[in-house]
Amino acid sequence: MKIIQTEIEGVVIIEPDVFGDDRGYFFESYNQTRFDAAVRPVRFVQDNESKSKFGVLRGLHFQCGRAAQSKLVRVVKGKVLDVAVDIRRGSPTFGRHVAVELTAENKRQFFVPRGFAHGFSVLSDEAVFQYKCDNLYAPESEGAIAWNDPAIGIDWRLRPEEVILSPKDSCHPTLAECKELFDYNTDYYA
């Protein structure tokens, strides 16, 4: 696998080695030993899958405190724009984001470490999205940032009238208003 460092330390794009011929293809989507050595040691404990139609925007979500999660995400059908936002107060990249296009064709994966909010927009007619989490879902620890916070300035590659949100995702606070964030000087993996 090829590890692509992004402009924010710890947020990486992973491109697998794909072996294809006239029968189809094969690739290793995850290998814990290689991942731990190339990215960081993480023990994934939950796999999730979602299916969404064009225009659906999910995010920007995170879990706080001891329930903080890292995510390793990929698309198995369709195309999404996947985004990680640094929400670690005191970080030199606080409030900045990384966006990457994930498709069934490019087979890229995106690692979102603890201390980041995560979201994605669906750019194809339909998308099936899979993600591994290194902590179990804890609804009491949920946090979120407004998807359209102008201070973050994410281009979701959708026109405003195309965006489809859940009622919950339509009313999150801005980053400046959010009280439950992370501290850059705290190790959330300890």
Strand tally: 15
Order of helices and strands: EEEEHEEEEEEEEEEE
Task: Identify the strand order in the major beta sheet.
Answer: 1-2-11-7-13-5
User: What is the number of helical segments per DSSP (H or I, 4+ residues)?
Assistant: 1
Shape: globular
Q: How would you characterize the overall build of this protein?
A:
The record marks 137 as: Participates in a stacking interaction with the thymidine ring of dTDP-4-oxo-6-deoxyglucose. Belongs to the dTDP-4-dehydrorhamnose 3,5-epimerase family. Catalyzes the epimerization of the C3' and C5'positions of dTDP-6-deoxy-D-xylo-4-hexulose, forming dTDP-6-deoxy-L-lyxo-4-hexulose. By secondary structure, the protein is mainly β. The chain has one domain (45-183): Jelly Rolls (Sandwich), CATH 2.60.120. Helix content is 4%, strand content 41%. It is built from one helix and 15 strands. The strands form four sheets. It has a six-stranded antiparallel β-sheet with strand order 1-2-11-7-13-5, with no helix packed on it.
